[in-house]
Amino acid sequence: MAYSEDHIALAAEYALGTLDADERSQVETMMAVDNEFAAIVQAWEFRLGVLNQMVGSVEPRPLVWDNIRRAIGHGGEQAPLVLPDAPPPTAPAAPPEIVPEANDNQPTAAPPPPAVAAGANVIQLTGRIRRWRNVASVASAIAAALLVMVGLQVYQPDALPDSIRPKPRTQVVEVKTPPPPAAAQYVALLQGNGNAPAFILTVDAATRNFTVRKVGAQPDAGKSYELWIVSDKLQRPRSLGVIGNEDFTARPVLSGYDAEIVNQATYAVSIEPQGGSTTGAPTGPVVFAGKLIETVPPAAPAR
């Protein structure tokens, strides 16, 4: 059940002990008839009793760091960059070898060895660079195509072929109707001369049904307790019926009265012969009385 900020503050002040006698009596009455409000008071007592507790720091779970790495593109291990081997240094060319000829005994220069090693290394490195450029171009083209496909799936799915067109998704949304707002609740302690309550009267503002709960009253032999509503707007007290011998007595008799009369009237209990008064007015002494107080306000309408 929803409670207003005033009720929650009242429960907190009761736990602090800053209320006067009348306010404490009202809170104790509300706690006696409303278990949820009593739980709120107990919760405040628990909170105010452990103010010295401290909250330590919390280390984020490893999953948080994994999500961050994945979001910035470093979720997996990065492959090391491998560069091609540098070509080995070439030895300087040897001087031409002079060999004698058999006929005229004149020296001649031997032909130089073919320079093949350095040229082969240059050709091999140029081929690797060309392959890397081709792979990079193909990867860029694939990435661009994927980007275009994703954009078409999001903004223009009809432009894609049927085989790769995204399937329409059907989502079922359940709409829950909010419950009707709760009506206000009123309660009155029927007691005499400041003694302990004899009866507790609870009234529902929406239906104006009332319930009388027997707390400490004990009927005399051959007598009955009868409940009366007393108001300046009524010519005389009106009977609300005999209070039964059970712990609870519920009746819808107040539905015939205006809300203003119900909320502001005084409720009295008299001792009558067995079965109640036969004159339509109290014939025995009025031993208990009380007025209604609001315990739970009506819920605010949804905006």
Structure in words:
The structure is a single chain. A hairpin with an 8-residue loop joins strand 3 and strand 4. Among the domains are: 45 residues, no CATH class; 112 residues, Immunoglobulin-like (Sandwich). It has 303 residues and is of the alpha+beta class. The longest helix is centred in the middle third of the chain and has 39 residues. The strands form three sheets. It has a five-stranded antiparallel beta sheet with strand order 8-5-4-3-11, with helices on one face. The chain contains six helices and eleven strands. Helix 2 crosses helix 3.
Percent of residues in helices: 25-40%
Strands, total number: 11
Low-confidence spans: 52-56
What Rg, in angstroms, do the CA atoms define? 48 Å
Topology:
Elements: H1 5-16, H2 21-33, H3 35-49, H4 62-71, E1 98-100, E2 107-109, H5 117-155, E3 185-190, E4 199-204, E5 210-214, E6 223-230, E7 238-243, E8 248-251, H6 259-264, E9 266-273, E10 286-291, E11 293-296
Antiparallel strand pairs: 1-2, 3-4, 3-11, 4-5, 5-8, 6-7, 6-9, 9-10
Sum this structure up briefly.
With 303 residues, this protein is of the alpha+beta class. It is 31% helix and 19% strand.
